[in-house]
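From the thread on structure requests for the teaching lab: each student submitted one protein with a one-line request. Submission from student K.M.:

"Model IroE protein from Janthinobacterium svalbardensis, tokens only."
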Amino acid sequence: MKGSAVRHEREGACFVTAGLLIAVCFFSNGALAAPASYVLDNTEVRDIRAQALKRDYQVYVALPDSYRQGNNRYPVLFVVDANYAFAIVRNIAQRLNRHAGMEEVVVVGLSYANGDGGVYSRRRDYTPTTPRKHDYRSDMPGRQPAFGEAKAYGQFVSGEVFPFIAQHYRVNMQRKVFIGHSYGSLLGLQFLLTEPRTFEHYILGSPSLWYDAGIMFEREQAYAASHKDLPASVFFGIGGLEKLAPGKKRSRSEEEADMLADVREFDGKWKSHKYPGLKTRLRVFEDEDHASVFPFVLTHGLRAYLTSAK
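Reply posted by the TA:
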């Protein structure tokens, strides 16, 4: 077969037509084999046990182009909701390095718990409290919805994931970045209002500040009453379309939340305290909504922290 290569497998044969870059594989019984999965280059999947939580998770790790070529230690980005966000963060970080001269990074994606639905896992692990009023239903038949384990999950991240990553990869653990969106940003705020030095930079997109009737506003007020400083670097990003529809009255509920007004109010409260160690910036992306804004938040949040050669 001219212009083609043939690879014989134990199960059958694969015919790779070089000119068309199409591979067709047949089992010995003549049935079509399942196509191979697409794999991101220089990525790894690691299993990790959350001992106190008694749950299993995976971490997804993306290594930079130069990782195998020297002994450099790299800034490390920790992104939650990794089942969705890991590939986005990895690809945008690489593109900013290759085409905009931004420094290379290691990306660590934090998966949902093994065996749990994504909604179930994130609702439990990223939220600070069980809502005082709610009518949420579980996405997992036979299991009641779970909430309010952000503190315990945060301790798993800092106490177990951090040492694991530091042991197995050449990362600079003095340059850690947290990346979250929506409920994921609630987890970031949990860190900020309890142990702000857990990360050196926080990228928080579209935080769900309406959650539990605005519990994070209460937490912010309590923090301010007992602290003179908040040593942190924070980039808030949100879509300009994440606002209350005309004719509705704003409240601290999911149905009547004005997320844009909420994040402006929250950021304003932080700035009003004049914490000497707090660097905070808010960027509104006017034509974006809750579903579309994350790549913009990520790009500008990285630029607010990572250095560029250009």
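TA comment: The chain is about 30% helix and 25% strand. Residues 82-100 form the longest helix (19 residues).
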